[in-house]
From TrEMBL:
Domain called NlpC/P60: residue spans: 209-323
GO biological process, one term: proteolysis
Xref: InterPro entries: NLP_P60_dom, Papain-like_cys_pep_sf, PG_Endopeptidase_C40
Signal peptide limits: 1-37
Listed name of the protein: Cell wall-associated NlpC family hydrolase
Organism this protein belongs to: Phytomonospora endophytica
UniProt keywords, alphabetically: Coiled coil, Hydrolase, Protease, Signal, Thiol protease
Pfam families: NLPC_P60
Coiled-coil zones: 142-187
A single MF term (Gene Ontology): cysteine-type peptidase activity
Family: Belongs to the peptidase C40 family.
Amino acid sequence: MTTPVTTRYLLRLSRLLFAGAAVTALALSVSSSAAYADPTLDEQIDSASHDLEVVVEQYNKAAEELDAVIERSGQVKDALVPLREMMAVNADGLSEIATHYFQTGGLSQLNAMFTGHADDLADRLTTLDFLAWQEDRELTGLLETQTALESEQTTLGELREEKERLEKELAEKRATIEAELARLTQLRDGVAFGYNDGRTYTLGSLPAGGGGAEAVRYAHGAIGTPYQWGGSSPGGYDCSGLTSAAWSSVGVGLPHNAAMQYDAVRKVDRGAAKPGDLVFYYNDIHHVAIYAGEGMIIHAPEAGQTVRVSPVDSMPVYGFGRP
């Protein structure tokens, strides 16, 4: 039989057990929050990383364009040298014709041509025609050379302006990247945020052979290397830096920019993709990876991460291409 004392004891015990369970549940909740980042914060970090990679690829594109401008400027400068030499030669030719004409009589010779003996008139006219033809040829050459010289000088001036614009753009984007990196670091500070939903992927085996397979082996050797914006060396890579370095290792040059790489490669269907092919992501093509086979890619994901293996569909795929 249950007594009032026993009943009170059981009620008190049940309240203690309930309170203990609540404390345990709260502790588990706190522990879970510590182990997994706040979804809202995760979204902020993901958005910031996405935006940063877009700017990094814009920086890489501007750097590629600047290199092209510098190379073209050198070509124009080289072209100016023979043009200036031709100008001098043509000018000297005209000067010699004029000097010869006046030294041999000038207008008085022209007058004598029509007052001399009729038998010599044909010869004198031939001489005059030759001098006129030679002068016309030298003058035409001089004008053509001068036009070409002025055109190249204009081109050089435009290239210098473009170079200054690109250098300014690069400086602005560098400042944006560095500021965004600092903000991203603060967001990540103390937060257990990872790529691939916290999972680590590996390849069952590496492809054999040369070409694309060798490019995959290069990329695989870079796994664990830190992301470095603008990087394309073993010290650090960004996405397009890794793919360009991997293919450079087998003698194939690619620009250091995802969208420019897409323009440079032969497009292939997803079903025909082979190890070494490039996989491009997002509608604006600001990310690129190297296909490793088995439905996996190797890529440099984003700031604060390292080169790693991920599923090919871990991001929205735009297309595939073969260098």
